[in-house]
Write a structure and sequence with these properties.
Protein name: Late competence protein ComER
Number of strands: 8
CATH superfamily of the largest domain: NAD(P)-binding Rossmann-like Domain
Strand order of the largest sheet: 3-2-1-4-5-6-7-8
Number of domains: 2
Distance between the termini: 36 Å
Largest sheet: 8 strands, mixed
CATH class of the largest domain: Alpha Beta
Number of helices: 12
GO biological process, one term: L-proline biosynthetic process
CATH topology of the largest domain: Rossmann fold
GO molecular function: pyrroline-5-carboxylate reductase activity
Helix content: 40-55%
Organism: Terrihalobacillus insolitus
CATH architecture of the largest domain: 3-Layer(aba) Sandwich
Keywords: NADP
Order of helices and strands: EHEHHEHEHEHEEHEHHHHH
Amino acid sequence: MRWGVIGTGNMGGILIDAWMNSNVMEEKDLFITNRSIQKAYQYKESYPRIQVCEQVDQLVKEVDIIYICVKPLEIYPLLTEIGPYLNKDQCIVSITSPFSVERLESLVPCQVARMIPSITNRALAGITLTTFGERVTKEMQGYLTQSSRLYSKPVSIENNVTRVSSDIVSCGPAFFGYLAEQFIKAASEETEISKETATILTEEMFIGFGKLLADGHFTLTELIEKVCVKGGVTGEGIGSMEQDIGKLFHHLFQHTHNKYNEDIEKIGAQLTN
């Protein structure tokens, strides 16, 4: 199978690195393109045998699987451009949540899947959220699923939980990274620890925290119970969080879903104009 990537920005680039480092395919079987073509050529410095296509139609004609890694509102114009070059045996894979597989299937003659990645895939870890269209063959579904297992854990999801699943899997590292930064900032402002030392300690804590979960030593609830000794310092900290955190995460999900619905409305307007 030959794979193609249209859009070598943040997530497209993460996928390229994940695939190359997990041997999903040989370098020569990956074709990439980007609106700013120099961003695509940069990947040849690390992976010399990758094929860079300066025109998007050139890429479409060469590959079996086409990963679309552009912004949601850029997808419809892109599909309009490449539509004449698609055939029923090819498979388009979208990595963005607002474009449902049903809507994608209505616009192209080929197979359609949605596979939402995470930045954690760069470490050959984390989740890939999968949804397959009705035209996807069992062989293609199996191939894509098995390939994603080389760098992640594929999890099939329904459309009604796409946004919240993506919030957890794809946005979660940024959300908890931001919380970690605030944790470090408060530590350095409230005590004599330097920001640099607090950062090192926090990063190492996260690494160990993840390993505890990955190795199955504790669940999240068990981990809290083990550390939070009754009447101890951790309990005081948890009590403060219970008091101050309020509806923070409720508001977070409300805002992400408002943006999601806004993007869906804009996509719908594109299709009716």
